[in-house]
Amino acid sequence: MNSPVIDLAGIVKTYGIGSPVETEVLHGIDLRLAEGEFAALIGPSGSGKSTLLNLIGLLERPTGGRLSIGGRDTATLNEAEITQLRGRSIGFVFQFHHLLPAFSAMENVMMPGIIARGAADDELEATALQLLDAVGLKAHAYKKPSELSGGQQQRVAIARALALKPRLILADEPTGNLDTHTADDIFALLREFNRQTNCACLIVTHDPRLAARCDRIVRLVDGRIADDLPTEKETNP
Amino acid sequence: MKFRLPFAPLVALRFLREGRMQTLLILAGTTGGVAVIVFLTQLITQLQAQIVDRVLGSQAHVVIRPLEEANRRAIDDQGFATVIEPRAQRLRSVDQWENVARLAAGMEGVTAVSPVVTGPAFAVRGQANKSVALMGVDAERYRRIVRMEEYMVAGRFAVDGTRAVIGTELAKDLGIRLEDKLRVALPNGRDELLQVGGIFDIGNKDLNRRWIFVTLPLAQSLLDLPGGVSNLDLTVADIFEAQPVADRLRGATGLTVESWMQTNAQLLAALRNQSVSNNLIRSFVIIIVALGISSVLVVSVVQKQKEIGILRAMGASRSMILQVFLIQGALVGAVGSVLGSLLAFALLNAFSAIYRNADGTPLFAAELEPRFILMAALVATGVGLASALIPARRAARMDPVQAIRS
Ligand SMILES: Nc1ncnc2c1ncn2[C@@H]1O[C@H](COP(=O)(O)OP(=O)(O)OP(=O)(O)O)[C@@H](O)[C@H]1O
Ligand SMILES: [Mg+2]
């Protein structure tokens, strides 16, 4: 079998080291996620879900433990290599879409490619249009984020996360501020891309309904993994 | 294929466009600063060049004289041409002047050498009697020292036989017109009848009243200086190199050698002070503009915290973020320098229309030298870059998580 996309062993994260408010947020997390796996990360507020996601997303470095992404031990990588690994193999979807307000939907979707390649090109443009079409926003490709609805913005953000065909998609409450119907749509989109590209997905959600539709549910409580269970397969033919 | 901006300039431009009001404000500040600097520099350069031009219009850059004590005028408070004084003692010639002239002509930086015989005389016509300075010259050669042909109001600047050239004031005082006769009498008892072949106005009443140009041989015989010359006048290629040239000549010949810079030391000191204060103003304006750009960009970095975090999350490196903000600074500087130069040009036009000389001609020309525009562009872009350095580094160091969490 392939090496897992995510491989965490004994991950510890402590904030404010050396200060009087030193707090250990994660106390030794072990987690593996294989290619094609679609997992939900759930847990009460403040349990450390976002922190864990940021560590996996290489936005922060762990205080202790081993963190491998795509089979590469991140402790051996320098700042530039980390940045590159993040850009090329991880797609983020945040709770608040986090689109760049100065750029059109198209440009937002192309941005990871522009960063990776130095400038836009025909191929990036074609891919971006295709992705926007896939999320049902072809007609809105040249609008600015402020001209789109919340659900549309989040769909642009998903298209952007997929732009470079990442092996791993990390989503932090991607449906957190959307109505149920829209949330279902967004979730379905992620699920569909997961099936199409066989990428690994880790999705933080507070919605038990959505969590139940994942392959696996990882529950975090007070910085520890409380349980990590596969969901019963639904009425699959 | 379409042209597409690379990442850093693309994002920089969008950020500038997004913060419209801020961008307009720093652009206005930069434009104003550049305009002030370009305008001042152009104005002062032009006025100084005019002053120097006027001073040197009737004066040799360097003068070689025999070593003498009696008639040295250490103080010349007129600020303009050296005053030629009547002398009681016998004139002396520059020793071996032909050799000295050859040596001077061969010296680097010297473009013209003209022998001059000069001494006091009286111009007499009817009852009128004026003290003058006889100037024996080779007209061809002397033209390369003082551009006499440009000052002629009547006749030509040419001397031949007893044909002479005099100034407008003397002509008026003695009631002389072109081709009229005029007698010169010398302290030694000699005299000569001259015919006026040209009348000049050199822009200096004193000289217009005193100078009478005659041929070199005529002046030599009238002044009892057969074969000799009282001084050698030199023109140099770079007027501000006149002093070093004079020093070298003095070392080589042992004669009295004076540059215009010595003769006009006070004027030069005044010009230098003016340059110093101009530089001071320029420095302050640059500092203020730099602070303006810098502070606006610092605010912009804070405002763009979230965007910076997003870009970093999508794989943008620290150095890419650094570039985005450096380019913003450079762009503001570059665009400001273009607008500022245009504004300076408009100011120069307005001022040259308002301020005029006594004779109604503009005090200065409303032109902008390309080198000043180029200088402004380089300095402003550089200042923009430098001012962006601190904000840009702040942006590059920013923690992407902090931005995304909020
Ligand atoms: N930079 C930081 N410095 C100190 N403590 C922090 C920092 N970031 C997060 N924490 C703390 O870590 C803990 C976990 O935060 P985190 O955001 O990961 O929780 P979460 O599970 O995502 O919660 P939520 O469901 O509300 O988003 C919290 O107690 C929070 O206060
Ligand atoms: Mg969270």
**How many domains of chain A, as an integer?**
1
Stretches of chain A where pLDDT is under 50 for at least 5 consecutive residues are none
Query: What overall form of chain A do the CA principal axes indicate?
Result: globular
**CATH hierarchy class name of chain A:** Alpha Beta
Hetero groups in this structure are: adenosine-5'-triphosphate, magnesium ion
Main beta sheet of chain B: 6 strands, mixed, barrel
Which strand order does the major sheet of chain B show? 2-3-8-5-7-6
Radius of gyration of chain A, in Å, reads 18 Å
Molecular structure report:
Chain A is α/β, with parallel strands linked by helices. Chain A has one domain (35-64, 77-230): P-loop containing nucleotide triphosphate hydrolases (Rossmann fold), CATH 3.40.50.300. Chain A has 7 helices and 10 strands. Chain A has helices at residues 49-56, 79-89, 105-117, 122-134, 150-162, 180-197, 208-211, and strands at 6-15, 23-33, 38-42, 64-69, 72-73, 90-93, 168-172, 200-204, 216-221, 224-230. In chain A, strand 1 (6-15) and strand 2 (23-33) form a beta hairpin. Chain A is globular, with a radius of gyration of 18 Å. The mean pLDDT of chain A is 89. By secondary structure, chain B is α+β, with helices and mostly antiparallel strands. Chain B folds into 2 domains: 7-54 and 268-405, no CATH class; 97-254, no CATH class. Chain B is built from 14 helices and 10 strands. Chain B has helices spanning 7-18, 20-56, 97-106, 139-142, 168-174, 205-210, 216-222, 242-253, 260-263, 265-303, 305-313, 318-354, 370-397, 400-405, and strands at 62-65, 110-125, 128-137, 152-155, 163-167, 181-185, 191-200, 211-215, 231-236, 256-259. A 6-stranded mixed β-barrel of chain B has the order 2-3-8-5-7-6. Chain B is elongated and about 105 Å long. The mean pLDDT of chain B is 87. Classes of the chains: A alpha/beta (237), B alpha+beta (406). The interface between A and B is medium-sized, with 31 and 27 residues. The complex binds adenosine-5'-triphosphate and magnesium ion. Adenosine-5'-triphosphate (ATP) is lined by residues 15-16, 23, 25, 43, 45-51 of chain A.
